[in-house]
Write a structure and sequence with these properties.
Layout: H1 3-25, H2 28-34, H3 40-47, H4 51-63, E1 68-70, E2 75-77, H5 80-83, H6 96-106, H7 109-118, H8 130-141, H9 146-150, H10 157-163, E3 166-170, H11 176-184, E4 189-194, H12 197-206, E5 213-217, H13 223-226, E6 232-238, H14 247-257, E7 258-269, H15 284-301, H16 312-322, E8 327-331, E9 339-345
Parallel strand pairs: 3-4, 3-6, 4-5, 6-7
Antiparallel strand pairs: 1-2, 7-9, 8-9
Helix pairs in contact: 1-6, 3-4, 6-8
The structure holds S-adenosylmethionine.
């Protein structure tokens, strides 16, 4: 495809992502998947939305080949095979969730441009929906395969969780993963830590009635010195090391707080530390963009290292070794092009 044509397509597809995000947030895809072919006004009425906006949104959906339109009847239809990638009923396959990142990044474009000129970073407070979208993201991408694919990466782990162990999740955000574990394994005790007061406060509201879980708001930058020694049997980080201000300190703290036979399970972005090896990465451009406009900048805003999401497997292994870890196994899940799963022991 000629380059100019490719850019033209990129313009259309970038715009389409914003409209897909709106379709998700307004539940228009969910509404349409329940309806027989319907007029714009009928869809708006069913969704409880303003007809003029819905009609314009449908224009983008039709020209974007997401929704079909019959000019004879004036009716719109969301094909079932498209609904399978766009609705809440699609659960883990709902790609509309990820389209929300485009708008969330667009929110800070002006601040990022300033950083290009002056340095520094854009703080979490500027990303007003970040924790909400992130919880939806990991709720799909991690929770959907927690028991089937992720826990089995550590042989014997589910048995130990059933018997009762101490578990720590760092950079836990809104804490959904930990909460699921706390419900499934009542004999174990769980602690989630995150910089965000807002995210940990939200996590607490979701865990009411659970006696085996605690969420702590704290900066982990000094975790190498402050982590409780030999305290936890399992430490987890889900997509949370590269955003840290001081990732190496966090990794050193994890080693310090693990019991001698403990395990550290780390999810982080797959990819290489060398950009030329990422050219064929199916999500390369998206991940570098999310990195530049979120992961790297929130770390820099804390006066941090700004590792970025695309720090890559080579550098991840190097950091784990520098933190003192000796046993590092890297796993990939067949259905997951975005992540590496590191099983790490002292
Ligand atoms: C990409 S999010 C992942 C959240 C969660 N693990 C999930 O998968 O939904 C990274 C998390 O790291 C946290 N974080 C960033 N810098 C931190 C710091 N200095 N101390 C503690 N947590 C930090 C952020 O608040 C954010 O919740």
């Amino acid at each position: 495809m000629p380059f100019a044509e490719r850019l033209l397509r990129a313009l259309n597809d970038g715009a389409l992502c914003l409209m897909v995000s709106i379709g998700h947030r307004t539940a228009l895809f969910d509404t349409m998947s329940r309806l027989a072919p319907a007029t714009s006004d009928e869809i708006a009425a069913e969704a409880g939305l303003q007809p003029r906006y819905v009609r314009e949104w449908l224009g983008a959906m039709v020209t974007g080949r997401v929704v079909e339109y019959d000019p004879e009847t004036g009716r719109y239809r969301l094909p079932a095979e498209h609904a399978a990638s766009l609705t809440r009923a699609a659960a883990a396959d709902n790609m509309a969730v990820f389209a929300q990142y485009i708008g969330e990044l667009g929110r800070v474009e002006g601040d990022i441009v300033e950083c290009f000129r002056k340095g520094g970073g854009v703080p979490y407070e500027k990303f007003t929906r970040f924790h909400e979208v992130m919880a939806e993201d990991s709720g799909q991408s991690v929770l959907s395969c927690l028991e089937s694919h992720i826990l089995p990466l550590v042989p014997g782990l589910t048995e130990r969780l059933e018997q009762g162990i101490r578990v720590l999740d760092l950079g836990c955000g809104r804490g959904r993963i930990l909460q699921r574990l706390a419900v499934s394994y009542p004999n174990s005790r769980f602690v989630g830590m995150d910089l965000s007061e807002e995210a940990t406060a939200y996590a607490r509201t979701q865990a009411v009635g659970l006696g085996n879980i605690e969420y702590v708001a704290r900066d982990l930058s000094d975790f190498d010195r402050t982590a409780e020694p030999d305290a936890f049997d399992l430490v987890t980080t889900f997509d949370a090391i590269h955003d840290q201000a001081k990732p190496l300190n966090v990794l050193k703290g994890i080693r310090r707080t693990l019991r001698p036979d403990g395990v550290y399970l780390m999810q982080d972005i797959s990819g290489s530390s060398h950009v030329h090896k990422d050219v064929e990465h199916p999500l390369g451009t998206l991940l570098y963009t999310v990195s530049c406009m979120h992961c790297m900048t929130v770390s820099l805003a804390q006066g941090g290292e700004g590792l970025g999401a695309m720090w890559g497997e080579e550098k991840t292994q190097e950091y784990l070794r520098r933190a003192g870890f000796r046993s590092i196994n890297v796993n990939r899940l067949a259905h997951d092009v975005q992540n590496n799963w590191y099983v790490v022991r002292r």
